[in-house]
Amino acid sequence: MITLKNIWKEYPIDGEELFVALRDVSVTIERGEFSSLIGPSGSGKSTLMHLIGLLDKPTRGDILIEGKNILEYNDDEISSLRNEFVGFVFQQFNLINKLTVLENILLPTTYTRKKLSYNPTQKAMEIMERFGIASKAKSYPNRISGGQQQRVAIARALIMSPSLILADEPTGNLDTKTGKEIMKLLAQLNREDTITVLIVTHEKDIAAQTKRKIEIVDGRII
Amino acid sequence: MGFIESAFFDFSRNKGRTFLTSLGILIGVLAVVLLTAFGLGLKASIEQQFEDLGTNLIRVVPGQILKDGNFSNSSSAFTSIEFDEKDIQKLSRIREIENTVPIFSKSIIVTVGNKKEISTLYASTAGIFTALNVNADFGKLFTESDVNKRSSVVVIGPNLAEDLFLSAKQAIGKSVTIEGQKYVVIGVTNKKGGGFGGGPDFDSFIYMPYKTAYTFNTNKTFMAIILQTKTDEEIKPVIGQAEDILLKRYEEEEFSIIQQEELLSAINSIFAMINTVLVAIAAISLIVGGIGIMNIMYVTVTERIKEIGIRRALGARKSDILIQFLVASIILSLIGGLAGLGLSAVIVFFIKPYFPAYIDLNSVLLALGVSSAIGIIFGVFPAKKAADLSPIDAIRYE
Ligand SMILES: Nc1ncnc2c1ncn2[C@@H]1O[C@H](COP(=O)(O)OP(=O)(O)O)[C@@H](O)[C@H]1O
Ligand SMILES: [Mg+2]
């Protein structure tokens, strides 16, 4: 479904020097996979995930989605792909605190250019029902628990029915019990909704719950 | 929650900052609206006074008042020749002239019992009433025979009548004292309004037969002669003949012959000039206000970098972000504009009894248009900055 070919990502540091965050990374993620990207802190996991999620561009290399090189797309087309193709889940939840839970979940639908085949609010309510957060629809994110906030974030990632969900340390800010529940939820989305899920983590027991492990050390896949 | 509510949310969280930022726009719009309100009122009242007079009037006055269609500012404007009966007789011989009205005017104090009022005395022929389009509401106007008999009669304006005799009706037949002489009030004129901004206040005048007024006018001279023609077409030939007649006695720059329309357009050009100055002042305060808005919008963008990153990650395009911040800055500017408009309306409401100011639809549209435009012009750079943030840098921003 998505293929990265010979990807390099370099950051300029202190003028002349270059910091190489990703070195010649090639990886393919197939439709329906439940995989994890594991490696120590600073190894380049988030950098790689941002490239897969089309939030960032590599210094060199190609990114193909369904065989098409998306680096040839313009900014609006890439924005639309992010909107419809990918759903992000972050360690810090990244909800907008001045919007209600429901408004946060609906936010991606306000940016879509395609005609939705469903009623967005109705769909949001269904997802919230399923995630046990329906009673929080009118609450503000900073008034609910971390586990609930992460459920809201996942609901927001799901609202556009994406092919791919990218979760960057989704349990990193949660206690063990809540973390397990979130992992169960992500596994369920992969199993029952056949959504491709990629989990970024530095914890072995989290990665152990996925079917495929992609290991990264010092910007290199091993 | 749309952009508009979202913008209001941000502004309501920072009420003090929002208020201070819109203050510049508020003052600018207040200036524009109030100044046009006063200007419009003044202009309308002056134009009204001239319209009352009709267009088939020609004024012959000393000095050079108009130069190339504008009021002259050279010293010749103050050359003080005065016209006399000889001029009047010669001018009245022009065939197309229907009415020759000499005018002697003087500021005087009128006394009735122990009441004293300051007024302007207009001494003329009976024709002055035709020329100024004045009628008697009570009593009657003086006639040519009153002029020739030097009757001790006066016709007074309704405001003056009320001030001196409580009501216009009661004034008829009573006498007034002017510089020690007694005169009988034979008529009170109809209300005309006016008197603002230096325009003539017909309602407080005293009219007297010009020969009666020779008591005050010992030189028997006049500061103006009004010539009235039957039709507008006759104005041009009459001006030519009047010029020929007067040039036999006076130098070219010692007198002016002014058409009503010329005077009106000269007044208009003064207003145009005043307007330009006002617009410049308002523009400066609006620009200052706009710069304030730009500053605050830059701050807002910086405060919301993370939010911008989140929105971009969820699929917002650059143009979505641009519009979001542009709407916010237009709203900020409109808040100032509406507050300025509201404040002007309140001020105009309270000042209206004393001055003919008014706010017209154009001022409202101008205020809203200008503040929207300021919001766009000064919001576009911060909004562009927000839109051009790289999604990844924005979402990683802490
Ligand atoms: N914008 C950037 N500028 C400079 N260095 C960066 C930038 N983003 C990431 N890095 C560096 O790249 C390396 C990999 O970062 P990251 O992908 O976030 O690691 P991980 O998610 O595996 O902890 C880190 O050393 C980090 O400091
Ligand atoms: Mg990371």
Map the helices and strands.
The complex is a heterodimer of chains A (222) and B (398).
Chain A lengths: L1 E11 L5 E12 L4 E5 L6 H8 L7 E6 L2 E2 L5 H10 L1 E4 L11 H10 L9 H12 L14 H13 L5 E5 L7 H17 L3 E6 L2 H4 L4 E6 L2 E2 L1
Parallel strand pairs in A: 3-8, 3-9, 6-7, 7-8
Antiparallel strand pairs in A: 1-2, 1-4, 4-5, 9-10
Helix pairs in contact in A: 3-4, 3-5, 4-5, 5-6
Chain B lengths: L2 H11 L1 H39 L3 E6 L3 E2 L2 E2 L11 E2 H8 L4 E16 L2 E10 L2 H6 L3 E4 L4 H6 L3 E4 L1 H8 L2 H4 L3 E4 L2 E9 L15 E5 L11 E2 L1 E6 L5 H13 L7 E5 H44 L1 H9 L4 H34 L9 H28 L2 H6 L2
Helix pairs in contact in B: 1-11, 2-9, 2-11, 2-12, 9-11, 9-12, 11-12
Adenosine-5'-diphosphate binds next to strand 2 and helix 1 of chain A.
Q: Quick gist of this model?
A:
Chain A is 33% helix and 27% strand.
Report on the structure:
The complex is a heterodimer of chains A (222) and B (398). In chain A, 33% of the residues lie in helices and 27% in strands. Chain A is α/β, with parallel strands linked by helices and 222 residues long. Chain A has a single domain, classed as P-loop containing nucleotide triphosphate hydrolases (Rossmann fold, 3-Layer(aba) Sandwich). Chain B folds into two domains: 175 residues, no CATH class; 138 residues, no CATH class. In chain B, the strands form three sheets. A six-stranded mixed β-barrel of chain B has the order 5-6-11-8-10-9. The chains are: A alpha/beta (222), B alpha+beta (398). The complex binds adenosine-5'-diphosphate and magnesium ion. The site of adenosine-5'-diphosphate has 11 residues of chain A, from strand 2 and helix 1.
